[in-house]
């Protein structure tokens, strides 16, 4: 039997990269997935790629009214929720001493406030045995120049999982963290001014990873599937690091 048969999942940031790959894997394992993202064109492409058992909802993870609309639709169409994966995130590289208020506000609004609000809006629909998966990063426990605000947001995400695990222990809802290392997704291109610059960044990250390469989105999807399924039923408040060994050496 498929590992997510008849389950309902929500994935924010589900139009590309880790979120999209995970949505595809969840559907292949029997789930109906609601993907949430800002750009309608990208949502349409993602839904067409997934093909079936998918509902695309347009919205901004930093806006609570958009999240309320998302979960109202989940409630109206499915009445319950089994898996919530908070994958929406943003990276803007700025060195300490040059961090702007705009950079700080945008990064925290999406990566922290948006993740908090999405998880809170999901909670009333979550069944006992449900799984909340928070996407953090190895940047939460490693120091990377230029990632001041991003790293701080991901450390906050890791902290959320500990607190929520303690608070939800009587609800039977598990909260765990998925922490990627450098993954070859479009977010890399967004951190460089040119294609050449993005390729140089990829080569630099690959040189730091014991596996000798950057990760692939489907490798994160494999770990997300484990956390979403009953195979991880005794895992609470944990962090699964998928980084090719980068954070271990």
How is this fold's topology laid out?
Elements: E1 8-12, H1 17-28, E2 32-37, H2 40-50, E3 54-58, H3 64-77, E4 81-86, H4 101-122, E5 126-135, H5 148-167, E6 174-180, H6 186-189, H7 195-208, H8 217-228, E7 239-242
Parallel strand pairs: 1-2, 1-4, 2-3, 4-5, 5-6, 6-7
Structure write-up:
The chain has 249 residues and is an alpha/beta fold. The protein has helices at residues 17-28, 40-50, 64-77, 101-122, 148-167, 186-189, 195-208, 217-228, and strands at residues 8-12, 32-37, 54-58, 81-86, 126-135, 174-180, 239-242. It has a single domain (8-181, 217-248), classed as Rossmann fold, CATH 3.40.50. 44% of the residues lie in helices and 17% in strands. The chain has a 7-stranded parallel β-sheet, sandwiched between helices. The model has no long low-confidence stretch (mean pLDDT 96).
Number-wise, the strands total: 7
Number of helices: 8
The CA-CA distance between the termini, in Å, is: 38 Å
Average pLDDT: 96
CATH level 3 topology: Rossmann fold
As residue ranges, the low-confidence spans are none
Major sheet description: 7 strands, parallel
Q: How many domains in all?
A: 1
Helicity, as a percent range: 40-55%
Shape category: globular
Instruction: Give the H and E element order.
Output: EHEHEHEHEHEHHHE
Strand content: 15-25%
CATH homologous superfamily descriptor: NAD(P)-binding Rossmann-like Domain
Give the radius of gyration: 17 Å
Shape-level CATH architecture: 3-Layer(aba) Sandwich
CATH class: Alpha Beta
Short structural summary:
This protein is α/β, with parallel strands linked by helices and 249 residues long.
């Amino acid at each position: 039997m498929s590992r997510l048969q008849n389950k309902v999942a929500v994935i924010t940031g589900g139009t590309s990269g880790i979120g999209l790959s995970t949505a595809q894997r969840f559907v292949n394992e029997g789930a109906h997935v609601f993907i949430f993202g800002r750009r309608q064109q990208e949502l349409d492409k993602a839904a067409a790629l997934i093909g079936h058992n998918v509902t695309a909802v347009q919205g901004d993870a930093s806006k609570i009214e958009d999240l309320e609309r998302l979960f109202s639709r989940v409630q109206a169409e499915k009445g319950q929720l089994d898996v919530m994966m908070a994958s929406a995130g943003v990276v803007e590289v700025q060195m300490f001493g040059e961090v702007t208020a705009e950079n700080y506000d945008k990064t925290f609004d999406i990566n922290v406030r948006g993740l908090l609000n999405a998880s809170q809006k999901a909670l009333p629909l979550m069944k006992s045995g449900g799984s909340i998966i928070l996407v953090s990063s190895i940047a939460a426990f490693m120091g990377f120049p230029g990632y001041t605000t991003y790293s701080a947001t991901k450390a906050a995400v890791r902290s959320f999982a500990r607190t929520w695990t303690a608070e939800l222990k009587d609800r039977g809802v598990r909260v765990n963290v998925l922490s990627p290392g450098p993954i070859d997704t479009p977010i890399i291109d967004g951190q460089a001014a040119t294609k050449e610059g993005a390729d140089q960044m990829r080569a630099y990250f690959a040189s730091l990873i014991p596996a000798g390469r950057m990760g692939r989105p489907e490798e994160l999807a494999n770990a997300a599937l484990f956390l979403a399924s009953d195979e991880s039923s005794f895992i609470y408040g944990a962090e699964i690091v998928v980084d090719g060994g980068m954070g271990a050496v």
